[in-house]
Amino acid sequence: MTSYNEFVIRFANVNGSGSASANGMFAKALFRMGIPVTTRNIFPSNIQGLPTWYEVRASAREYFGRREKVDIMVAMNAETYTEDVDRLESGGYLIYDSTRGRPRELCREDVTEIGIPITKLILSEFSDPKQRQLFKNIVYVGALSALLNMEFEVLTSMVASQYRGKDKLIQPNIRALELGRNYALKYLPCPMDIQTRSADLIGDRILVDGNEASALGAIYGGATLCAWYPITPSTSVADAFEKHASRLRVDPETKKKRFAIIQAEDELSAIGMVIGAGWNGARAFTATSGPGISLMNEFLGLAYFAEVPAVVFDVQRAGPSTGMPTRTQQSDLLSVAFASHGDTKHPILLPAAPKECFDFAADAFDLAERIQSPVIVMTDLELGMNQTLSEPFQWDDSRRYDRGKVLDFDDLEEIERYGRYVDSDGDGIGYRTLPGTHPTKGSFFTRGSSRNEWAVYTEDPQSYINNMDRLTKKWETIRRLMPAAEIESRNGRAGIIYFGTTTTPMKESLLMLDENGIALNTLRIRSYPFGADVAEFIETHETIFLVEQNRDAQMKSLLTLDLGIDPEKIISILYYGGFSISADYIVDSVTEHYVVNKLPRLREVES
Amino acid sequence: MTFVPKPSARHPLLKTNEIGLTRRDYEAIVSTLCAGCGHDSVSAAVIQACHELSIPPHQFAKVSGIGCSSKTPSYFLGNAHGFNSVHGRMPSIATGAYIANKDLKYIGISGDGDSASIGLGQFAHIIRRRVNMCYIVDNNGTYGLTKGQFSATNDRGSTSKRGVPNLYAPIDLVSLAIQLGASFVARSFSGDKQQLIPLIKAAVLHKGFAFIDVISPCVMFNNHDGSTKSYTHVRNHTEPVVDANLIMPRDEITVEYEEGTTTSVPMHDGSKLQLRKLSDSYEPNNRVSALTYVQKAQEEGEIVTGLLFLEEDAVDCHDILGTLDTPFNELDEENLCPGTERLEQINDSLR
User: How are beta strands B303-310 and B184-189 bridged, if at all?
Assistant: First the structure.
């Protein structure tokens, strides 16, 4: 039976072999044919020579989660061949380079094997050793275009636009595409049962990764300083900020920049610069991952107590630090929420898609200045580094930055006595002044703690308590300012909670569960501290599942601590293998709970 | 330590500077450091220098790390904002602050524990980045607030108050600063106002990273016979090289004693320090010879004081980064937000 626009294809390559651009071109071609796609780059912590995989999921139904098995495997790496063959679905296709023989015992009866003499084709056509290596990848893309019945013009026009200005590269690339395509058309059963066909399912959406979206959000949100230290998987936030700011933030006449990027000596310094700039009234951010968060702890506490705005992007990876830096996880939640010594807590924004990365990035700067405290935007490698279908970025030109409570010269003129930490509005947030504002009024000494509301040093217990209680009041103000959860009712008695990238496989999971007779209402957490909507959702459902990508159910702890919820009420679904959680895993976990506890379903299903 | 607040009354004859402010306008709350602490002399020198420069006090921003030295920004320029940050991390705060507003004058106060131990990395990198500021280390070779542990600038063989010798070689911040590219490097002694005040003035006016290592004896933990940073030891081993009689692009700074003479500098504890003016042969514009000179003197047990290295017309970090002349903290949506039209183009490029 032929299926259209619904498959997972995985490319198994060796890193450093130039496969990334060919694979990316393949994904983009599907996108341009109007087919919803998402991509996953599974790569080692290495520059050259280790196995790397690139997965594309095309899904007219918009199922974007990772699947445990794949439909088409392009097996270009002998080292992982066995593993790659095992990963194929029954009925799937194995595409391999047939120039040399393969071990016979690795063949599977239930998959279709398609051999293409890629190396041989290349050797006869290209003489340059570098081209011979690079074009292997292009040849299999060309062959796939025939096997999957793709529009060839989409690919050739992409080559033309990609190498615009380097025209002599266009023809060899197209030649390589044709080599693969013509071979497939002539010698292989084209098209396969798994096929593509042009569709109109994209609308005005875009294909982008979360890190680029975050960087653009920072530019639109008015960030002027990006201070950072290289760390996978957050590096591309700084890279994208530089790329776009160099186009969007340079004075056309003087060529001077309205932004600064400083690659710091370490993460301590990076966050220090962000806090220094925030103290002085400029919007600044850093991008990091778990190990960087650990190093930033002391400074994050200082910013909390000193009440200085700062924005941090934590693109999470699997811990510990040297373990799986190129794998994804949601395991920094607790360390971020309570980063630092003493009584500290920090608000967190949890985007689930690139468009939301953009929105939350811009919002984070408003929020940080409004609440005069660090705001942490938490994504992960899965969202940050993989291109996926996203709503287009939007901006309202009438939007004004919320610079929070900052007194200028005229304000200070009218004030009899200025006190930095006086809670005159009753929301726990005092008024800031920036250095250099007024000759005689408004100066104060910023320090970690041990001060009264006039910013005067004191070790008086009551002053300390007053300050801490005001910060608690501020926390409740923050709670009201955070984006609300996204709730959908499916008339179930049970509910499922997810956040960030555990959102990705949810659409598919819910439909699969529905087939199992299980209807779940859903709640997507978008921020911490949690709103009353989250508390109510948990209270009004008999059974609550919470899906997380960490071992210790960190979100469950946060919910328990922040809302005083009985932890027994929440059933955790936890995945922490370093890949993103799949719909299969979620469905199996929920279904097992129903089976074990003999919970009633909407209808009887065959088990 | 004193708890007496300063009276607000002023003598009508108090000398005013060019902008009509008295020295008192540059002061702040009374110090809570130990009586006789060298750091208070440094604060007094900062007050005097800033007053003489006639820069409005609120046009300064004071930054510090943690330690006795880092408390001192509370005690000068009360009308300027201050940031007492994290141990050893003042350089990053200063860098961010300077990126946000290039128009203020930045004075950083650190200590030897703050800059030579926990913050050595940040100290090195702020020099590389050429942040435009006056960076002073109150160097007493000891950890005062935690009661007398050795710091990394303490000389090998120098003893603690309990008589225990230091086993490790010292880190010389001056040599490091010269080597890492600071464009203004000086060393002085907290008790030597005649030398220190002009140095601070020059450092404040210098465009680029100006570093002053100020030997500042700790009266509690490092002012005994076995210490190489005691008042007595430093007085007996000081060799001043260059007076700060330099002409800066925007102002003239002079010292009060003449070349080729010795001068007797009264200290706040009543003692006197003999300073010898250097020979004209010292050349402060060469990084290599400056470094050699400092290290040679060190080998001979001498502390060289004065302006040791100066690179005029230095570039600073904003020059390197190519940033706008307007301070970043004055930019609004119009300057920062590219708007919907550009965003649509970006969306298109992602289709």
Answer: antiparallel
The one-letter code for the residue type at B69 is S
- Shortest Cα–Cα distance, A480 to chain B (Å): 25
CATH number at residue B254: 3.40.50.970
End-to-end, the C-alpha distance of chain A in Å comes to 25
Where in the sequence is the domain holding B58, given as residue range(s)? Answer: 23-321
Q: Is residue B127 included in any domain, yes or no?
A: yes
Selected for mutation to probe chain B from A228, A249, A279 (highest B CB count within 10 Å) is: A279
- Note whether residue B342 is domain-resident: no
A51-71 pLDDT tens trace: 899 999 999 999 999 999 999
Q: Which of A171-175, A400-404, A492-496, B141-145 shows the lowest mean pLDDT across its residues? A: B141-145
Model pLDDT, residue A269 = 98
φ/ψ region of A585 (left if φ > 0, alpha if ψ in -120 to 50, else beta) reads alpha
Q: Above 60 in pLDDT, residue B261?
A: no
d(CA A351, CA A594): 30
Find the CB nearest A280 among B85, B100, B336. B100
Chain B residue numbers with beta carbons less than 8 Å from the beta carbon of A400 are 333
Mind listing the pLDDT tens digit for each residue in A371-401?
A: 999 999 999 999 999 999 999 999 999 999 9
Half-sphere exposure of B213 (CA within 13 A, CB side): 31
B-contacting residues in A 91-120 (Cβ below 8 Å):
none
> Considering the domain boundaries, does residue B277 fall inside one?
yes
Cα(A53)–Cα(A8) distance, rounded to whole angstroms?
Answer: 12
Q: Mind listing the domains of chain A with CATH numbers?
A: 3-195 (3.40.920.10), 207-390 (3.40.50.970), 406-481 (no CATH), 486-596 (3.40.50.920)
Look at the alpha carbons of A97, A99, A100, A106 in this order and tell me if their dihedral is positive or negative: positive
Distance to chain A for B344, nearest Cα, Å: 8
Q: At B294, is the secondary structure helix, strand, or coil? A: helix
Which residue of B79, B347, B350 is in closest CB contact with A440? B79
Place of tokens 């399912």: A201
Residues in A touching B109 (Cβ below 8 Å): none
One-letter amino acid of A565: I
Structure tokens at A23: 């694979």
Question: Is residue B336 in a domain?
Answer: no
Chain B interface includes A435 (CB < 8 A): yes
B81·A457 Cβ contact <8 A: no
Residues from chain A that touch B1, judged by Cβ atoms under 8 A, are none
Inter-chain touch A397–B339, beta carbons under 8 Å: yes
Q: Chain A residue closest to B98 (CA)? A: A277
Q: Is the pLDDT of residue B132 over 80?
A: yes
pLDDT of residue B280: 58
Catalogue the E-assigned strands of A167-233: 194-195, 206-208, 225-228
Q: What does the pLDDT look like over B67-76, one tens digit per residue?
A: 999 999 999 9
Angle between helix axes B173-180 and B287-299 (nearest 10 degrees) is 160
Q: How many domains does the structure of chain B reveal?
A: 1
Are residues A50 and A567 in contact, defined by beta-carbon separation less than 8 angstroms? no
Most A CBs within 10 A among B79, B89, B90, B135, hence the mutation to make, goes to B89
Would the ipTM clear 0.90, i.e. be above it? yes
- In contact, B46 and B76? CB cutoff 8 Å: yes
Residues A141-161 have a mean pLDDT of: 96
Q: At what angle do helices A170-187 and A118-125 cross, to 10 degrees?
A: 130
Query: Are residues B255 and B243 in contact, defined by beta-carbon separation less than 8 angstroms?
Result: yes
Q: Are A393 and B346 within 8 A, CB to CB? A: yes
A501 to each of A64, A376, A381, A399, B304, how far by Cα in Å?
10, 16, 9, 29, 61
- CA-angle at A250, arms to A249 and A256, nearest 5°: 130
Interface test with A, best of B27, B30, B92 (most A CBs within 10 A): B92
Q: Which positions in chain B touch A369 (Cβ < 8 Å)?
A: none
